[in-house]
Amino acid sequence: MSPARLLGLLALFALAALLLALDWGSHPDGLRQWLDGDPLAHTLVLELRLPRALGAFAVGGLLALAGVVMQVLLRNPLGDPYVLGVSGGAGLGALLALWWALPAAWTAAAACAGALVSMLLVFALAARGGWGATRLLLTGVILASGWTALLTLVLALAPAARLPGMLFWLMGDLSDPGDTGPAWGVLLGGLALALALARPLDLLLRGEAQAAVLGVDVSRLHRGLFLLGSLLTAAAVTQAGGIGFVGLVVPHLARLAGATAHRLLIPAAVLLGGGLLVLADTLARTLLAPRQLPVGVITAGLGVPLFLWLLNRRPRP
Q: Is the link from the previous residue into 3 a cis peptide, with omega within 30 of 0?
């Protein structure tokens, strides 16, 4: 399949997911009623469903792009946006804000601050060892374990009235998208930067030594990829909490569809990740309507069988 055709099909998939999100909901009014001029449908489609769908697409694109970056940085097919502990720091900040019943804007700011602290810790600790993939991965895993312990402690000590909101946020919450402008800004900026690095990313996959021979500053590229992946992850977690499997599975699905070179893989992953998360969020708010599920439950339910299927498709050694 040609690159243009693949990207065109993925763009159509993303558009179809967005239209479905605008049309489906706990209330029967949808796009047809909005086009007929129904004022209730106007409110539902443009003021409730559209911001949520746009937020879901931005978060899905951020996680998928971060997954592509992390898998190259760590040279590990199991790399995902959360492996370096950025989400744990963001989660701790957000839970503390929810514990103190701070406004939504403060919760987002606290999550962003926690992600920044985690990113700086990993950066400082990994830099001492020369940015080796193994040291970076171990540093991130250990730090993530520490954040998990602190998150468990906060949940154990938090007032019972605060627990539902905290748990919902940890499992992924798109019910109140707020201002999605920052998430879209980080996504578009990260997409442009990743596309500019497409050739060095292809060379890095061949090995650090060969990339260095071909003119790539490997150490500088490692630092740049870490900062880019961490920023993308921080923006996604700040916007919607912890949503698993998107960053892990989507890059593999895009490669399976034929997007192997990064100049094609990067936009393909963004379109596929955004569309899949929009669909998952649509299911989360309609399956048990009027009750809503955390979107992370849906992504895990879809991601586990998808990833097992991908593993079974790999040729045996």
A: no
How would residue 129 be classed by pLDDT, with cut points 50, 70 and 90? low
Note whether residue 192 is domain-resident.
yes
pLDDT tens-digit map of 10-45: 999 999 999 999 998 878 878 888 888 888 888 989
Q: Which residues contact 240 (CB under 8 A, 6 or more apart)?
A: 55, 56, 59, 172, 173, 174, 177, 295
**Number of domains, the chain:** 1
Q: Is the dihedral of CA 142, 56, 156, 93 positive or negative?
A: positive
Write b or e for each residue in 259-284: b if 16 or more Cβ atoms lie within 10 A of its Cβ, otherwise e.
beebbbbbbbbbbbbbbbbbbbbbbb
Distance between CA 261 and CA 245 in Å, rounded? Answer: 22
The enclosing domain of 290 has a CATH number of 1.10.3470.10
* Rg, Å, the chain Cα set: 20
DSSP state of 85: S
Is residue 114 helix, strand or coil? helix
Burial of 294 per CB tally in 10 Å (0-12, 13-18, 19+): buried
